[in-house]
Amino acid sequence: MAQHPRHRHTPAYYEERRLQALERARKWRLDNPKRYKELNRVCGQRWYKENKDQVCRETRARYLRLKKIVVRKYGGRCACCGVSELVFLAVDHVNNDGAKMRKEKVHGHGVALYHWLIRRGFPKDFQILCHNCNWAKAHGGCPHARPTL
Ligand SMILES: [Zn+2]
Ligand SMILES: [Zn+2]
Predict the structure, then answer these.
(1) Distance (Å, rounded) from C-alpha 38 to C-alpha 137?
(2) How far apart are the CA of 92 and the centre of ligand 2, in A?
(3) How far, in Å, CA of 9 to CA of 11, rounded?
(4) Cβ contacts of residue 96 below 8 Å, gap of 6+?
(5) Residue ranges of E strands in 10-122
(6) Which of 21, 50, 76, 106 could form a disulfide with 101 if both were Cys (CB 3.0 to 4.6 A apart)?
(7) CA of 148 to the centre of ligand 2 (A)
(8) Cβ neighbours of residue 137 closer than 8 Å, sequence gap 6 or more
(9) Span 13-72, pLDDT tens digits
(10) At a CB cut-off of 8 Å and minimum separation 6, what does 42 contact?
(11) Radius of gyration, CA atoms only, the chain
């Protein structure tokens, strides 16, 4: 008995099916704009999760690039103790004028602050301090600035 060949479709058939599916998807999108938006959002999150490492690397690279620009512009080292290791350094508002900073809408820190400083042409009332000196300055003054015993 001759074996019946498995049912097969021509490429044109598959192409037709593909177009139909696309058309159905297009109609569905038009009929369900909210759901489509939601799906897009969820897919975006999935994309973010799957690419998180890369996104993090890129974010970090951008952060470091900006930080280098800003730190260099302000002398490249801690204004108090002279430490020049980038990871130890942070932007400091010379007069600790929190009210003025809020009034001028100075953004917290990180990339936003670096952008803010760059846009304003590196205002004079900022400096670079290492985290030690920065913290000490905010808590009664850095020991470096006191006369040695
Ligand atoms: Zn320092
Ligand atoms: Zn210091």
Answers:
(1) 48
(2) 12
(3) 7
(4) 137, 138
(5) 89-93
(6) 106
(7) 13
(8) 80, 92, 96, 129
(9) 888 999 999 999 999 999 999 988 888 888 888 888 888 898 899 989 999 999 999 999
(10) none
(11) 29
DSSP-based three-state secondary structure for 26: helix
Judge residue 116's burial from the number of C-beta atoms within 10 Å of its C-beta, 0-12 exposed, 13-18 middle, 19 or more buried: buried
Q: 66 C-alpha to center of ligand 1: Å?
A: 20
- 88-139: per-residue pLDDT in tens? 999 998 887 666 666 666 666 688 889 999 999 999 989 999 999 999 998 9
Q: Which residue has the tokens 């099916």?
A: 17
Query: In angstroms, what is the span from residue 82 Cα to ligand 2's centroid?
Result: 8
* 96 CA from centroid of ligand 2 (Å): 15
The answer to whether residues 116 and 106 touch, using CB atoms and an 8 Å cutoff, is: yes
Task: Locate 61 and state its tokens.
Answer: 């690279």
Tokens matching residue 68: 């280098």
Q: How many other CB atoms are there within 10 angstroms of residue 129's CB atom?
A: 27
Q: Which residue is associated with the tokens 């897009």?
A: 40
